[in-house]
Amino acid sequence: MSDFEIKGWCPSALRPMRSGDGLIVRVRPHGGRISSAQAKGIAELSMRHGNGLIDLTGRANLQIRGIREDSHEPLVAGLAQLGLIDADAQTETQRNILVAPFWTEGDDTQSLVGELERALAARLLGLPQKFGFAVDCGSTRLLTSAPADIRIERDISGQLLVRADGTPRGRAVARSEAIHVAISLAEWFVASGGTRDGRGRMAAHIAAGAKRPDVVAGGARPSPAAASQAPGLRTTGALIGLAFGQLQSATLEFLAGLAPGLRMTPWRMILVEGLRAMPEHDGLVMRGDDPLLRIVACTGAPACPEARAETRSFAASLAPHLPADGRLHVSGCAKGCAHPRASALTLVGTEEGFDLIRNGSARDVPTLRGLNPATVLADPRVLMERR
How far apart are CA 323 and CA 186, in angstroms? Predict the structure, then answer.
């Protein structure tokens, strides 16, 4: 079997991570898109080498779950045939790019992403594993709530800008210099100590006192941020949701048969290119008011060895009881990996039941401890009532 680390890594294709249901192999689509042929190939490989479950991550990557250890190498070989494998693990880890999905042929998005991928492959910068880039250069910004450290956007006049995450303004740039400036900013991050002290993220580095470098000095104000996205038809296709960001291989194969390509998003949604009607299939979330879109639930037990409770069926049962403006996070343990930020309601699995945290994260002090799931489902008002 290929050499890999069990803990301490974000999973990737060349460096998988072990979980309770086998190895997790993360696929990072080039340009945030997979072709129909690639999607069908991923679905087939998932069924042949894994348990048929595929996650869509908050970084718009696909995770193939349940891979047997003796199947990792043939799986990687299959992904390589689909054009989804990098030259080595370091190159793969560094190619961490989010792409706003509503681009059209001939705009700057895909050419910028391609140039950025080539620049990152040409040199190893020593960036932390979770350090990433966002190419979000439509007329409104779509990725403001998604994790990224260096952002290529547009300013209010429509010109491209490069901005360090954690700063309100960036440097206006010509198209020809955008990637050079972005890479120079990444080099400054490493040289100025951004990888030290366990921070590893641009916003934290700047908040700790690092002075923004001259390479991105400027007062260009980013274009307005778009409202949160919901399933529905767009000019470029159909945006469909996935409950808890997971789908069956058969569902991916179904979607692959509808369009020339699929565009990944960090919102637990996939854009199916070119569709003019919403598709019908089990496991897809079609309505913007579906409460499942306002619930985050990690993999939970038994698939995650850290989890102390099953999460997703419990969360799905709670969905009809969630207030119209409510947001719920169900975590199998106090790590809160699926949603590190605060939520109106957070349930954390423990050996004694679920702890309830209001307006906080999974690491905060609970309001109630040891709630039995059956008791909560019998009377969900216990989550809403102040005690």
Answer: 42
